[in-house]
Design a protein that fits this description.
The protein is built from 1 helix and 24 strands. By secondary structure, it is mainly beta. The protein has 3 domains: 30 residues; 30 residues, no CATH class; 208 residues, Sandwich (Jelly Rolls), CATH 2.60.120.200. A hairpin with an 8-residue loop joins strand 21 and strand 22.
Amino acid sequence: MSTIATLGSTEDGATSRNDINNNFANLNADKLEGPAASVDSEVALFSGTGGKTVKRATGNGIAKLIAGVLSLVTAPAGVIIGDTDAQTLTNKTLTAPTIADLSNANHNHHNAAGGGTLDESSLALTDIATNNVSTSKHGFVPKAPNSTSQFLRGDGNWGTVAVDVPKVTFYSNFGVSAQYSPSVGGSGANTFAQGTGVQINTGATSGSFAEVIDDLTGGAGTSSNYFAKTSRFSTRINFNVGGTTFNSFFGFGDYSAICSGTGTIYTGKAYGFKITGVSSVYTLFGTNGDGTTETATASLTTLSVGDWLDLMAVFTPGVGVDYYWSKNGGAWSAATTNTTHLPPSGSLTFAGEIWCVSNQSTASRTQFLAKQGQFIF
């Protein structure tokens, strides 16, 4: 760039004129030339590489500078997006985005607006029971057990298809005492009547009991493996007389040591029902034992003298005993199930249907009428 000379105070006219002419020459050499007209706030650009000619910027768009050189990018029709601005975007396509947080996505995948529905191939299923179907909500089918003999039950679990096999039914109507094995102690008595049933009466003497057995061993001392498959015991009884204290049993199993004047034993290999009297409060329970320990249900119902009861217990080996009852001709109850201390599989020396009552060494009389009984094996 040229330098403008300073005129000295002692220069004469010729010298001053020379300096002035040189200065103008320098100004002309260094001047920046531009177009004859412009628009207010218009951008000016260098023209060429001489660095002394300016031109007007043309074109429309967004200015982009690379190494100081201006180029244009087509401007969007809408607003420009800022990385920290709160803006709503429409008609945008994101290709392979990385989204750090979906908390505010609001996608329910119910329709296109909610992210589109998910097809089967989009689900990644695992071997867990989360969200399986239940009795309280819809859900996934539980994992298949890989068995052709099971089905999905109404409670959401897999069950085994019951095989229809021949059954043997033992029916007791108590018409002839010689067909049964009655026993008594103290003032106990069993009174059989054709068409009526059998009265099982402790009497009022302390230490009394009465028991009736329908012996399925045939007196041979051996029996089938009754607890190896599903069986059912049912009976109808009438509560005739209620003593202050007693216990009783109505069921099926090992009858070798069930009833005595001191009380009824419930730990034997058997299942059925017990009715107890405690201070003249009478309660029905389901009960079963494995030969060592008893499991009893909670109270099924309380009784009053004169009540009729229909009782049914269904035994499933290794699964449990379902107890059902009906009082005075009412509706059958739902099942109450015991699953522990079940009678084990194996032949029994003494097996049969059992009806017994003991006054537990109290001077108190209790009496039941056993109308009929049935055991299906």
